[in-house]
Amino acid sequence: MNNKNIKELFDDFIKQCRYITKLSESSIDGYNSTFELLLKIYPDLTVEMLTPALMTEFFEKLEKRARIVGRNKTVKVGIKSSTVATYRSKLNKFFNWLVSNGYLKSDPFGGMAYPDVDYDDKKFLRKEELEKIVAAISTRSNNLLVRKRDLAMFYTLLYCGLRRGELIGLKVYDINLEKREMTVAAETSKSKNSRIIPIHLELVTLFKDYLAERKKLRYQTSSLFVSNNRDAGITFNGLKHFVDNIKNASGVNFHLHQLRHTFAVNLLNNHSDIAKLKQLMGHRDIRMTASYLRCLPTESMRADVESLRLDKMCWRYFRYDSEDVCQSATVNVRQKRPNK
User: What is the pLDDT of residues 236-259, one digit of tens each?
Assistant: First the structure.
Protein backbone atom coordinates (compact mmCIF):
# COMPACT_ATOMS: atom_id res chain seq x y z
CA MET A 1 0.00 0.00 0.00
CA ASN A 2 1.31 3.45 -0.94
CA ASN A 3 1.49 5.96 1.91
CA LYS A 4 3.48 8.59 0.01
CA ASN A 5 1.92 11.83 -1.16
CA ILE A 6 2.35 13.04 -4.73
CA LYS A 7 5.26 15.34 -3.83
CA GLU A 8 7.17 12.43 -2.28
CA LEU A 9 6.46 10.27 -5.34
CA PHE A 10 7.70 13.06 -7.61
CA ASP A 11 10.90 13.26 -5.55
CA ASP A 12 11.38 9.49 -6.09
CA PHE A 13 10.84 9.99 -9.81
CA ILE A 14 13.45 12.77 -9.92
CA LYS A 15 15.97 10.62 -8.03
CA GLN A 16 15.61 7.89 -10.66
CA CYS A 17 15.97 10.48 -13.44
CA ARG A 18 19.13 11.84 -11.85
CA TYR A 19 20.90 8.65 -10.70
CA ILE A 20 19.57 5.86 -12.93
CA THR A 21 18.44 7.52 -16.17
CA LYS A 22 21.29 10.05 -15.71
CA LEU A 23 19.33 12.94 -17.16
CA SER A 24 21.01 16.32 -17.32
CA GLU A 25 20.27 18.86 -14.61
CA SER A 26 18.68 21.16 -17.19
CA SER A 27 16.15 18.42 -18.08
CA ILE A 28 15.47 17.79 -14.40
CA ASP A 29 14.99 21.52 -13.84
CA GLY A 30 12.33 21.44 -16.57
CA TYR A 31 10.47 18.60 -14.83
CA ASN A 32 10.68 20.41 -11.50
CA SER A 33 9.41 23.76 -12.78
CA THR A 34 6.47 22.17 -14.63
CA PHE A 35 5.45 20.08 -11.63
CA GLU A 36 5.74 23.16 -9.37
CA LEU A 37 3.40 25.01 -11.73
CA LEU A 38 0.87 22.18 -11.45
CA LEU A 39 1.11 22.31 -7.63
CA LYS A 40 0.78 26.09 -7.67
CA ILE A 41 -2.60 25.77 -9.37
CA TYR A 42 -3.60 22.66 -7.38
CA PRO A 43 -1.80 22.92 -4.00
CA ASP A 44 -3.82 20.01 -2.54
CA LEU A 45 -3.17 17.72 -5.50
CA THR A 46 -3.24 13.95 -4.93
CA VAL A 47 -2.50 11.06 -7.26
CA GLU A 48 -6.19 10.16 -7.32
CA MET A 49 -7.01 13.60 -8.75
CA LEU A 50 -4.92 12.99 -11.88
CA THR A 51 -7.60 12.52 -14.54
CA PRO A 52 -8.15 13.73 -18.12
CA ALA A 53 -10.71 16.22 -16.76
CA LEU A 54 -8.15 17.75 -14.38
CA MET A 55 -5.54 18.07 -17.12
CA THR A 56 -8.06 19.79 -19.37
CA GLU A 57 -8.93 22.18 -16.55
CA PHE A 58 -5.22 22.78 -15.83
CA PHE A 59 -4.46 23.93 -19.37
CA GLU A 60 -7.71 25.92 -19.47
CA LYS A 61 -6.55 27.85 -16.39
CA LEU A 62 -3.16 28.46 -18.00
CA GLU A 63 -4.88 29.75 -21.14
CA LYS A 64 -7.06 32.18 -19.23
CA ARG A 65 -4.67 33.43 -16.56
CA ALA A 66 -3.22 36.94 -16.80
CA ARG A 67 0.46 37.35 -15.98
CA ILE A 68 2.92 40.23 -15.90
CA VAL A 69 6.07 39.78 -17.99
CA GLY A 70 9.19 41.79 -18.82
CA ARG A 71 10.64 45.00 -17.47
CA ASN A 72 7.74 46.96 -18.92
CA LYS A 73 5.32 44.93 -16.76
CA THR A 74 3.24 43.92 -19.79
CA VAL A 75 0.09 41.94 -19.00
CA LYS A 76 -0.26 38.83 -21.16
CA VAL A 77 -3.03 36.27 -21.45
CA GLY A 78 -2.85 32.89 -23.16
CA ILE A 79 -0.30 30.16 -23.74
CA LYS A 80 1.42 29.10 -26.95
CA SER A 81 0.85 25.65 -28.45
CA SER A 82 4.58 24.94 -28.16
CA THR A 83 4.42 25.69 -24.41
CA VAL A 84 1.42 23.38 -24.01
CA ALA A 85 3.35 20.63 -25.80
CA THR A 86 6.40 21.19 -23.57
CA TYR A 87 4.42 21.15 -20.32
CA ARG A 88 2.50 18.08 -21.40
CA SER A 89 5.66 16.20 -22.39
CA LYS A 90 7.32 16.88 -19.03
CA LEU A 91 4.25 15.98 -16.97
CA ASN A 92 3.67 12.88 -19.06
CA LYS A 93 7.08 11.47 -18.10
CA PHE A 94 6.05 11.58 -14.44
CA PHE A 95 2.55 10.25 -15.12
CA ASN A 96 3.92 7.30 -17.10
CA TRP A 97 6.30 6.58 -14.21
CA LEU A 98 3.33 6.55 -11.81
CA VAL A 99 1.48 4.10 -14.09
CA SER A 100 4.53 1.84 -14.53
CA ASN A 101 5.04 1.65 -10.77
CA GLY A 102 1.38 0.95 -9.98
CA TYR A 103 0.58 4.28 -8.32
CA LEU A 104 -1.80 5.38 -11.08
CA LYS A 105 -4.23 3.27 -13.13
CA SER A 106 -4.01 5.13 -16.42
CA ASP A 107 -2.29 8.08 -18.08
CA PRO A 108 -4.34 11.30 -17.61
CA PHE A 109 -3.35 12.29 -21.16
CA GLY A 110 -4.37 8.92 -22.62
CA GLY A 111 -6.12 9.27 -25.97
CA MET A 112 -5.45 13.01 -26.24
CA ALA A 113 -3.70 14.23 -29.36
CA TYR A 114 -0.75 16.60 -29.01
CA PRO A 115 -1.37 20.21 -30.05
CA ASP A 116 -0.34 21.35 -33.51
CA VAL A 117 2.69 23.51 -32.85
CA ASP A 118 3.12 26.65 -34.92
CA TYR A 119 6.78 27.20 -35.76
CA ASP A 120 6.32 30.47 -37.64
CA ASP A 121 8.00 32.23 -34.74
CA LYS A 122 11.59 32.51 -35.94
CA LYS A 123 13.95 31.43 -33.20
CA PHE A 124 17.21 32.46 -34.84
CA LEU A 125 18.72 35.92 -34.66
CA ARG A 126 19.20 38.05 -37.75
CA LYS A 127 22.50 39.63 -38.78
CA GLU A 128 21.44 43.13 -37.70
CA GLU A 129 20.36 41.82 -34.28
CA LEU A 130 23.69 40.03 -33.79
CA GLU A 131 25.58 43.19 -34.72
CA LYS A 132 23.63 45.20 -32.12
CA ILE A 133 24.43 42.60 -29.46
CA VAL A 134 28.16 42.63 -30.31
CA ALA A 135 28.19 46.44 -30.18
CA ALA A 136 26.50 46.39 -26.78
CA ILE A 137 28.97 43.84 -25.37
CA SER A 138 31.94 45.79 -26.73
CA THR A 139 30.92 49.03 -25.03
CA ARG A 140 28.91 48.12 -21.92
CA SER A 141 31.74 47.63 -19.39
CA ASN A 142 34.96 49.44 -18.51
CA ASN A 143 36.23 46.20 -16.95
CA LEU A 144 38.57 44.70 -19.57
CA LEU A 145 38.19 41.16 -18.24
CA VAL A 146 34.39 41.33 -18.34
CA ARG A 147 34.38 42.76 -21.86
CA LYS A 148 36.78 40.12 -23.23
CA ARG A 149 34.99 37.33 -21.34
CA ASP A 150 31.56 38.40 -22.60
CA LEU A 151 32.74 38.57 -26.22
CA ALA A 152 34.34 35.12 -25.92
CA MET A 153 31.15 33.71 -24.35
CA PHE A 154 28.93 35.23 -27.02
CA TYR A 155 31.00 33.92 -29.92
CA THR A 156 31.34 30.50 -28.26
CA LEU A 157 27.54 30.24 -28.26
CA LEU A 158 27.24 31.63 -31.78
CA TYR A 159 30.06 29.64 -33.44
CA CYS A 160 29.86 26.40 -31.41
CA GLY A 161 26.12 26.08 -30.74
CA LEU A 162 26.54 25.17 -27.07
CA ARG A 163 23.73 24.81 -24.59
CA ARG A 164 23.76 27.06 -21.52
CA GLY A 165 24.90 24.28 -19.16
CA GLU A 166 27.63 23.23 -21.58
CA LEU A 167 28.97 26.78 -21.68
CA ILE A 168 29.12 27.01 -17.89
CA GLY A 169 30.67 23.54 -17.69
CA LEU A 170 33.60 24.36 -19.98
CA LYS A 171 37.03 24.04 -18.35
CA VAL A 172 40.27 25.71 -19.38
CA TYR A 173 41.69 22.34 -20.41
CA ASP A 174 38.70 21.75 -22.74
CA ILE A 175 40.12 24.37 -25.11
CA ASN A 176 42.99 23.33 -27.39
CA LEU A 177 44.03 26.41 -29.34
CA GLU A 178 46.83 24.62 -31.20
CA LYS A 179 44.43 22.06 -32.66
CA ARG A 180 41.57 24.61 -32.67
CA GLU A 181 39.30 22.14 -30.89
CA MET A 182 36.84 22.39 -28.01
CA THR A 183 35.75 19.36 -25.95
CA VAL A 184 32.24 19.32 -24.51
CA ALA A 185 32.32 16.85 -21.61
CA ALA A 186 29.62 14.17 -21.34
CA GLU A 187 28.66 15.21 -17.82
CA THR A 188 27.68 18.71 -18.99
CA SER A 189 25.88 17.58 -22.16
CA LYS A 190 22.15 16.93 -22.29
CA SER A 191 22.78 13.83 -24.44
CA LYS A 192 25.40 12.56 -21.94
CA ASN A 193 27.84 12.10 -24.83
CA SER A 194 31.10 14.01 -25.14
CA ARG A 195 31.88 15.71 -28.43
CA ILE A 196 34.67 17.73 -30.03
CA ILE A 197 33.86 20.94 -31.89
CA PRO A 198 36.21 22.82 -34.24
CA ILE A 199 36.99 26.32 -32.99
CA HIS A 200 36.37 29.15 -35.45
CA LEU A 201 39.49 31.25 -36.23
CA GLU A 202 37.78 34.41 -34.99
CA LEU A 203 37.01 32.66 -31.71
CA VAL A 204 40.64 31.52 -31.37
CA THR A 205 41.72 35.18 -31.30
CA LEU A 206 39.03 36.05 -28.74
CA PHE A 207 40.09 33.12 -26.52
CA LYS A 208 43.73 34.22 -26.62
CA ASP A 209 42.82 37.77 -25.61
CA TYR A 210 40.50 36.63 -22.83
CA LEU A 211 42.86 33.98 -21.43
CA ALA A 212 45.73 36.46 -21.37
CA GLU A 213 43.64 38.95 -19.37
CA ARG A 214 42.43 36.20 -17.05
CA LYS A 215 46.03 35.09 -16.44
CA LYS A 216 47.06 38.65 -15.72
CA LEU A 217 44.45 38.78 -12.93
CA ARG A 218 45.69 35.40 -11.57
CA TYR A 219 42.49 33.41 -11.68
CA GLN A 220 43.03 29.83 -10.50
CA THR A 221 39.61 28.23 -11.11
CA SER A 222 39.47 25.49 -13.73
CA SER A 223 36.23 26.95 -15.12
CA LEU A 224 36.85 28.61 -18.47
CA PHE A 225 34.48 31.55 -18.02
CA VAL A 226 35.01 33.23 -14.67
CA SER A 227 33.06 35.44 -12.34
CA ASN A 228 34.16 39.07 -12.40
CA ASN A 229 34.25 39.38 -8.58
CA ARG A 230 35.62 36.07 -7.29
CA ASP A 231 37.92 33.23 -8.31
CA ALA A 232 35.17 30.90 -9.54
CA GLY A 233 33.23 30.08 -12.68
CA ILE A 234 30.32 32.16 -13.88
CA THR A 235 26.96 30.89 -12.58
CA PHE A 236 23.52 30.54 -14.18
CA ASN A 237 22.50 33.71 -12.36
CA GLY A 238 25.59 35.41 -13.74
CA LEU A 239 24.58 34.41 -17.27
CA LYS A 240 21.06 35.72 -16.68
CA HIS A 241 22.52 39.02 -15.47
CA PHE A 242 24.70 39.12 -18.60
CA VAL A 243 21.70 38.57 -20.90
CA ASP A 244 19.52 41.14 -19.10
CA ASN A 245 22.24 43.79 -19.38
CA ILE A 246 22.86 43.11 -23.07
CA LYS A 247 19.13 43.11 -23.86
CA ASN A 248 18.80 46.56 -22.29
CA ALA A 249 21.94 47.93 -23.94
CA SER A 250 21.26 46.51 -27.42
CA GLY A 251 17.47 46.78 -27.59
CA VAL A 252 17.35 43.17 -28.83
CA ASN A 253 15.00 40.89 -26.90
CA PHE A 254 16.75 37.53 -27.00
CA HIS A 255 17.67 34.52 -24.89
CA LEU A 256 20.85 32.43 -24.95
CA HIS A 257 19.28 29.39 -26.62
CA GLN A 258 18.52 31.52 -29.68
CA LEU A 259 22.26 31.59 -30.38
CA ARG A 260 22.18 27.78 -30.60
CA HIS A 261 19.28 28.04 -33.06
CA THR A 262 21.22 30.68 -35.00
CA PHE A 263 24.26 28.40 -35.19
CA ALA A 264 22.18 25.50 -36.55
CA VAL A 265 20.12 27.50 -39.05
CA ASN A 266 23.16 29.25 -40.51
CA LEU A 267 25.09 25.99 -40.96
CA LEU A 268 22.10 24.47 -42.76
CA ASN A 269 21.65 27.66 -44.76
CA ASN A 270 25.27 27.27 -45.90
CA HIS A 271 24.51 23.71 -47.07
CA SER A 272 26.17 21.90 -44.18
CA ASP A 273 25.52 18.16 -43.97
CA ILE A 274 22.73 17.48 -41.46
CA ALA A 275 24.67 14.48 -40.10
CA LYS A 276 27.61 16.77 -39.32
CA LEU A 277 25.26 19.25 -37.66
CA LYS A 278 23.83 16.45 -35.51
CA GLN A 279 27.31 15.67 -34.21
CA LEU A 280 28.21 19.31 -33.64
CA MET A 281 25.04 19.96 -31.64
CA GLY A 282 25.24 16.77 -29.60
CA HIS A 283 21.81 15.42 -30.56
CA ARG A 284 20.96 11.79 -29.89
CA ASP A 285 18.38 11.64 -32.66
CA ILE A 286 18.79 13.17 -36.12
CA ARG A 287 15.07 14.01 -36.07
CA MET A 288 15.89 16.66 -33.48
CA THR A 289 18.50 18.12 -35.84
CA ALA A 290 16.06 17.98 -38.75
CA SER A 291 13.61 20.14 -36.78
CA TYR A 292 15.89 23.12 -37.50
CA LEU A 293 15.08 22.79 -41.20
CA ARG A 294 11.69 24.36 -40.53
CA CYS A 295 13.43 27.59 -39.51
CA LEU A 296 15.31 28.15 -42.76
CA PRO A 297 14.40 31.55 -44.25
CA THR A 298 12.46 31.50 -47.51
CA GLU A 299 15.17 33.44 -49.34
CA SER A 300 17.68 30.67 -48.66
CA MET A 301 15.55 28.28 -50.73
CA ARG A 302 14.87 30.59 -53.66
CA ALA A 303 17.90 29.45 -55.69
CA ASP A 304 16.91 25.81 -55.15
CA VAL A 305 13.43 26.48 -56.53
CA GLU A 306 14.83 28.50 -59.45
CA SER A 307 17.08 25.56 -60.35
CA LEU A 308 14.06 23.52 -61.44
CA ARG A 309 13.74 22.96 -65.20
CA LEU A 310 11.04 21.13 -67.10
CA ASP A 311 13.60 19.31 -69.23
CA LYS A 312 15.28 17.94 -66.09
CA MET A 313 12.18 16.61 -64.35
CA CYS A 314 12.11 12.99 -63.13
CA TRP A 315 10.41 10.43 -65.31
CA ARG A 316 11.24 7.02 -63.82
CA TYR A 317 9.88 5.72 -60.50
CA PHE A 318 10.56 2.78 -58.26
CA ARG A 319 8.97 1.43 -55.10
CA TYR A 320 10.54 2.44 -51.77
CA ASP A 321 8.93 2.19 -48.34
CA SER A 322 5.46 1.98 -49.88
CA GLU A 323 5.90 5.31 -51.69
CA ASP A 324 6.83 6.18 -55.26
CA VAL A 325 9.95 8.30 -55.35
CA CYS A 326 11.92 9.68 -58.19
CA GLN A 327 14.84 7.51 -59.27
CA SER A 328 16.74 10.19 -61.12
CA ALA A 329 16.51 13.96 -61.36
CA THR A 330 18.98 14.18 -64.20
CA VAL A 331 17.33 12.12 -66.93
CA ASN A 332 16.17 14.28 -69.80
CA VAL A 333 12.38 14.11 -70.10
CA ARG A 334 12.70 14.18 -73.86
CA GLN A 335 14.64 10.93 -73.85
CA LYS A 336 12.62 8.09 -75.33
CA ARG A 337 11.03 6.04 -72.57
CA PRO A 338 11.72 2.28 -72.53
CA ASN A 339 9.06 -0.15 -73.62
CA LYS A 340 6.94 -1.47 -70.78
Answer: 999 999 999 999 999 999 999 999
